[in-house]
Amino acid sequence: MKFYVYRLALKNRFRRLTERDGLLVKGQHWGEVSPFWDYDAEESARWLAAGVEAATGLPAPLREAVPVNETIPAVGAQVAFDLAAASNCATFKVKIADHPGALAEDLARLEAVRAAQPEAKIRVDANAAWDVESAVYQIRQMDRAAGGLEYVEQPCETVEDLAKVRRRVDVPIAADESIRRAADPLEVARRHAADVAVLKNQPLGGVRAALELAEQLAMPVVVSSALESSVGLRAGLAFAAALPELPHACGLATSRLFTGDIVAEPLTPVGGQIGVRDVVPEPARSLPVGADLARAWERRLAQMWKVAEAAGKVSGGYEFMGGLA
Fold first, then answer.
1. Active site residue 95
2. Is 313 noted as a catalytic residue in this protein?
3. Does this model's pTM top 0.85?
4. DSSP for 158-217, written as a single string
């Protein structure tokens, strides 16, 4: 296995990031390993296992294309309108609760997306920003502003609070962090704390591990991106394409959040769907990777590999090749 560092620029700030960097792994195929920098070695080791799996081989698909949503970052109302109006998707995921006191901006953003796409489904993602009372109040406000929400993703941090909110609002609740970062990912289902499971294959240790968890949860699943390049999105598509049922559009159209991707033909939607196909990175499409960033990823890879190897998730050796560009 050979590992390369990539670096891409984002069109708009997303998760407080203006750039995205990670590792690409070359085996028989290509995979991506891109845990965020605030994740420790133990959690990041699952991302490593996912990338190695993708580079080794992914499950056969049950469908040739996957319906996807357009992601609208925490931008101004006019930008949100323009992004939604230009999209060919029928579902929109709108980022909200980007900072304290964001409600007025969030409502304006939702109204703009609805104005641009009167017939679309709209979902929001709060990234666990609220307590129970704030969640109940703001969800009701946002449901009105959006002309109806498909669901609200991770309004609160704990499973207990998700369950409380779910009992008090009419909008369905989706769980993300409460599953992928939980010691017990099945607690959400046992406590009836959510209506939808948002699953990401990298944080869950790979496509096969994510498929097994989806079966155990026995809930409708939305497959989502971890803000990956098209190489990482390829594994997300494999996960979505292998699910027996796919009732909701998936959050896999995120390559459009970058100013440029690392493949010549990024995995972007046509008619609201992304076709399942392989991609190959091109070094010239990465931003330059400086020596400090390369060394940081080399150290991090060694830490992840040690943890994953001890858990039996990887074996043998690897080569760190430095920057892709």
1. yes
2. no
3. yes
4. SHHHHHHHHHH-SS-EEESHHHHT-SSTTHHHHTT--SEEEE-TTTTTSHHHHHHHHHHH
